[in-house]
Structures are given as structure tokens and as C-alpha cells.
User: Fold these one by one.
Assistant:
Number 1:
Amino acid sequence: MMQKPLLIIGNKNYSSWSLRAWLLLKAFNVDFDEQLIELFDASARPILEAHSPTGKVPVLVYGEGDEKVTVWDTLAIAMHVNEYFTDINIWTGIKKSVTNAQTDHQNRINSAYCQSIIAEMHSGLSGIRNEMPMNIRATAKIHPSEVCLSDIARIEAIFADCLKGRSEDSYLFGHFTAADVFFAPVVLRLQTYADASNITLQPLTKQYCQTMLNNPHIKTWIQAALQETRIIEEDEAGEIVSLSGVLSAK
């Protein structure tokens, strides 16, 4: 029997890449342990030195000694999980055992699209990433640059293309896929900054954001984030309008 993997993650309020890895494992029924470290804190150093070749989170590890398997970078974790830990194809959201000639071509189209927008999210869209750092407990006002607004427009175009013709509570490809995982932090960023910064979102974008916020795993992550008290200045942006969670009482 394979040892239960350990996922090492950072602060839930701020760590968008940690959210992606954690949500992926939860959504695709992987039984795992988690270890949360404090980002940019000396206490994290020995854990990262023991497990993470890059010194960053997330990192997935299992096995001992020469049998130890280490997977770092969220995209690598996604590919590894798809190959070894789940009976669901993470690119389509469909059980790997369910295939036929009629559905195979559509699944291939969806898989290619899913992988492409994940790679685009993973390697680009730096405007929204830099100007709207994930900060779940905050509502904050920023002055977005044209680069940031262009990123949001591109994200909205992706959402519109994926969701056209689908039901109101649909995920991007109908079934929950890795694309929903990789865009989950975007949903939380928009919740923090869009309304407070007078950024107008398309109705379909708002609809999809609400679908994601209704996801039970995302609700669990948010509730944990709201219990955190540490403030990491590197990940604070804009003018804080209001706070939720335990810090709101201080």
C-alpha cells in the first residue's frame, strides 16, 4: 500500500500556489496529510531544506530513504497526481475508465484547452498576480494598471468561452477539472479587489466566481484562512477597506 503523501503548504490567506495543490488533492479524492509552514519565517527553513529543492511551497512528498518521491511546482504536482493518485482524469473531470469513440474526441478537445489555459495561468498573467496578491480576509482598493486590466479581460474571455451554453452553476468544462483548480485564486483575488476598485466584471464571470465560492473545499480553505492572524507585508496591496475573520475584531 502506497504511503499517504504529505503536502507542505504556506499561509492559507496568502499562498495561491498552495491553494492550487491542496484543492487539486481534495477535489480528486487523494487522501493526504498537510503541513502548513509560515511563509518568510525562520521556522519554515528546516522543513523546506528537508523537502523542497527550490525552498518554496507547495511540495508533495511520500516514501522514505531511497524510495522517497518529491514533487515540487504545482503544475508538476497536478501531472503526478493525475498519473498516480486518482482514477479521474484531472483535465476532463471524467473517470479514466469511461471512454468511447463518441466522447473521446470531445474529451481530447477539452483536455487540450484545459491544459493550455492552465499553462497560460501558470506562466503568465503577471499583471493580476503582481497587483492583486491573494489576500482572502481583505477587501481592498487598488488602482489597476492597463496590464492588470488586460489580464482580467483575458481571464473573462477564457471563462466566457468555456462556459458558453453551460448551466448557471457549471464549472469551466462542466465537470470540475484542474482548470478550476488553477483559476481558483483568481476568483479569490477578484473577490478581494474588483468591487472595491470599481472593476466591472461580466455577469458570466460573477456567476462562475459564485459557483467556485460555493465549492465545499474552497469554503473549507477560506474558513481556515480567516482564522489566521499573521500579516505578511509582502502580500498586502492597496487600501484595505475591510477585513473578515479573526483580525476583523481587532
Note: The radius of gyration is 18 Å.
Number 2:
Amino acid sequence: MERLQLQRDLGAFRPGDATLAAFAVAAVGALVLGFILAIGRMSDHRWVRLPVGWVVELLRAVPVLVFMLLLYYGLPVIGIKMSSYWAVVIALILYNGSVLSEVIRAGVEALPRGQSEAGYAVGLRKAGVMRLILLPQAIRAMLPVIIAQLVVTLKDTALGFIITYPELLYFARLLGSNGEYGSPLIPAAMVASVIYVAMCLALSYTAHRVELGLRRSPKGGNVAPAEPAGQTGTDTELIVAQRGLGKYDAGSGGGI
């Protein structure tokens, strides 16, 4: 009977697919939320900067597992029922998005002050300076840290088994506690660990290839077109050069 139940569960869900499905949505959501919170924290407006700062500190202080438990078991108390999938995804987005916001903010603030001042000097507003000068350079500099946080996001999907989300660890525990197979808990845990390591290595390798590509083209298409042979200069200098061609002007973006 236990074997039939296990086969039925394995047929209904693919643990690897469930893990990757939660990670893919959580990674994209965390990156988007991270950018939004980072820009909010760097706003010139105090009424924007302070509340966003409180939100970031609150989200970073609450453990991911507590978020999952609150979403899955707490919301039904007030009449809101949430599936285990969305409880896992939203919890990962909230926590990792707040961490990534600090990573992005640190990358922007670590850039030389002359970068932004040069942008303002050629007539760019803060949105244009942020989009064309600061963010492209900060992302390239902080890419290893961003990828490391995404690896943490992938591993944290394992916490979903506590709220019965059918991811990889959930099925390893289900298989390991099955008396029909002799309760192979240790072998099942070892196999699950190997799969997690393989997925994390694949993600790290992909990030390494992206980083190598960015290093080969340090000017990046986000800031300015490829420079002519023999031309050198910083990203800001390239924008200044394009200024004369009318590509970037004071109307490129509003204030933040």
C-alpha cells in the first residue's frame, strides 16, 4: 500500500521540476524586487527612502522558513488560502529580494562619485545617470555576489518540504521513510544532496560564463555602442561622446 502511494505521488509530481519551478519564479521575482527596493533606498526623497529602508530591514530580519509558515498556515486564519507553491515562492522573493537590494545598492555606492557627477554635467537627470552609467557598472561588479545569492535561493527551496511542497527534499524524505523499501533514509538523502549540488554547480557555471562574457565586452551594450578600434575611455566618457550625436539628452529620464 505504501509503495502504491509513493508511486502515485511520484507520478503526480516530478521533484526536480517542482524545485526548478519554484526557483525560476523566485529568482526572477527576487531580482525585480531587489532593483525596486535598491532604487527606493537611493531615492533623494526622504518620504520614499525611509519607508523602503524599514521594509528592507524587516524583510531581511525574518527567516525564510517563518515567511513560509506565516503564508501557508497563518493566512488561512484570516480567510486567505495559499498553495504551498506560492508560499515557497513568495517567501523566497521577499527575503532574497531584500538581500539583493542591499547588494545592488552597495555596488552603486561603491562606484567613484565622479561617474555620476560627469553624467549630471552632460545634462542627464538622476534616472538617466542610474540607468545608463551606475547600474550597468554596479551589476558587472556585483555579479558574483548576485549569483551567490541566487544559489542560496535554489537551496532554500528545500525548506518547502516543511509545508508539504513536493520538491526534491520532500520526496527524499518520503522515500527514506517508506518501510516497503526498508526506510533508506540515508541513501535517499545522499541522492538528493548530489542532485542539489549538481543544480548549484550548473547555476554557478552559467554565471561564470556570463561573467566572462561581460569581461570580454567591458563597455557593454547597455551603456554605449561598441567603441571604434583604438578608442578608449570610461563608460561616462562614451556617453559624453554620444551626447554630441544627440543620443542622450536631459530628457532621457525623470528624477527618482
Note: The two ends are 62 Å apart (CA to CA).
Number 3:
Amino acid sequence: MPSALAQSAPAPATFTLPPLPYAASSLEPAIDAQTMTIHHDKHHQAYVDALNKAVSADPALTGQSLEQLVAKAGTLPAVVRNNAGGHWNHSFFWKSMAPPAQSGAPSPALAAAINASFGSLDKFKAAFKAAGTGRFGSGWVWLIVGADGKLAITSTPNQDNPLMDAAETKGKPILGNDVWEHAYYLKYQNRRADYLDGWWQVVNWPEVSRRYADATARK
């Protein structure tokens, strides 16, 4: 009977893996195609699958958006915090990058803000690299717009991010880089600093500039 079939059908997945916005090989030579494929198809998919499993097991979380889960991650079980963060962070990360020919440059407004906060684009990159290499173990490094509307660099452990209630430094991320070893090990091995240097070739500055405009327009 249709009603019986409907009752026995599995619930649809709440969250899904977004496709890469470019071919897996498009970020070479900064990031190789094999790393991109494994990172997206295996690692990110695993976060999505684990998050769906955790949410389906807790009726209190049913129907909540990814942003809602991330915002209160510090009050949630570790399995939800880690996998909601993993899903949000990676979805954000893919869009933070573009093929080298499309990388572009910061908008005039973002460039002025970078100069005001860090002195120059080169000094910003150096500070961002220092935060990334200084993150012990696995985690992320971020450029955020703080509550005061100014730019700041911060890093988070594991799959945390600055939107979480548990974040040491909170703010609106406009750029983030994954410094888990799975993001770079096949090409760079233990040379995280080289990965961070090469990554600037594929930063999607038009998207970062759009995020900055959006974040500051709400102040």
C-alpha cells in the first residue's frame, strides 16, 4: 500500500554535498587534482554523511539549518559540532578558490581595509601564513570581519570556525584555508608553509571581496 511504503521509506538526507565550482584539476599547480578529488569526494562527503546520521538520531535537531547548528555548536554533541563545522567550512572553502586565471585581486574597498589593518597585502599574507603554520595539529586559518567592522586574522582547531558560539575569536569569515594535512599532504607532504604560499595563486578574490562588502554592509 502507498501509505505503508511511505512510512517505511528512509527519510531524505537533510544536508548534501555541494559540487565543486570548477574541475578538480583547475587549481593546479597550487593544488593537485588527486588531492582535490579525495578532499571533496571523500572527506567532505564523510562530514555530510556523519552530520545527517547525527541529526536524524536527535529529533531536537530536525529541520535546523546548517547555520543554526554552527551558531550553537558549543552546546551540541561533539559529533554534531565537528561534522556541521566540517560541512560548513568545506562548502565555504571551495568557493574561496578559483582557477589561477580567475583569481583576480581584492576590490578597492577590501584592499583599503587590508592596508588599514595589516599595512599591505604582502604583510597580510605573511600574517595569514604565520597563523596557518602556527596552528598546532589540524584546523583552519581565517580572515574575518569582527564586530567592530575591522579585519582580523584568526585560526580555529579541528572543524571549528569563527561563527561558532565556542570560537575564541568570533566574526564573519570572508576567507578561510584548510590546514588539515589531507588538504595538502599528497603534494606538499609536511611543508605546510609551502602550501600556504602556493595557495594565494588560487584565492578567489572577487568572491572574498563580495563577502567583505556583504559583511560590512550589515554593520
Note: Strands lie at 139-145, 151-157, 172-178.
Number 4:
Amino acid sequence: MAYMSEEGYKKLVEELRVLETVNRPEISRQIAEARDKGDLSENAEYDAAKEAQGMLEMKINKLKAIIADAKIIDESKLKTDSVQILNKVELKNLKNGMKMTYTIVSESEANLKEGKISVSTPIAQGLLGKKVGDVADIQVPQGKISLEIMNISF
């Protein structure tokens, strides 16, 4: 089961719609066009279009599985007394004093450029359940980091 925000769920449904109604017919058209060019045994365009079709169908099936397993979180029931999914967490690295803010989201919504980290990352796992003022010692590939929780919000 994948927990996600309603916004994240809607993005996945829209992406699936585009793949099925725009990309799928386009690849079918490319396959038909390549097939019309004759001998399929030496037709690179046909092979490429068939491979693209296979990749597209895999992506469609993966999205369908994610959507089927999705559990939309009721944001009105979220609390900020301890860190949980969909919380925005302000942190301070105790080693270098650097401050950062992350929103903990589902894997499908993660985007580091937007400050959204997956709930399955080591940092998010180390923060879950902690309260403001707590220090989380988290094992990351570069070693152990100590992060103090400065604020929890939505």
C-alpha cells in the first residue's frame, strides 16, 4: 500500500490518462507506418517502435499498480505533534549548523528539487515519530548525521 496526498494521486491518474490516450495511439501509428514499409526482418523503425511500445506498456502497468494500491491520506487528520508522512519538517544539522526543510511524501511523489523526500529514505525513516527539539541520529551512506527537529508543519 502506498500512502500519498490527493494531489500526488491526481498527478498519477493524469499521467496514466496521457499515456493511454496520447502516447499509446501514437506508438500504434508508428508501428503501422513502419509495417507499411515492407520487410519486417530488416526494419529498424519497426523494431524501435515495438520496443517503445513494450516500454510504454510496462510504464502503464506500473502506474496502474501504484494507483490500485494507493491510499489517499486525509490531510485534515494529520497532526504536527510528531513527524509523519506529509509533514514539512525544518531541520538543523548539528555538525555544520546548516538548516534544511523537507516534506515527507510517498515514493511516487518524491522530488528532491522541491524538497520532497520519500518516506522510505533513511532520513525520513529516522525522523518519523520524532518531536520538535528531538535529535535524530541517522545513518546515511556518508556516515552518521545528527539532525535536530526545529519545526513540524503542513
Note: The mean pLDDT is 89.
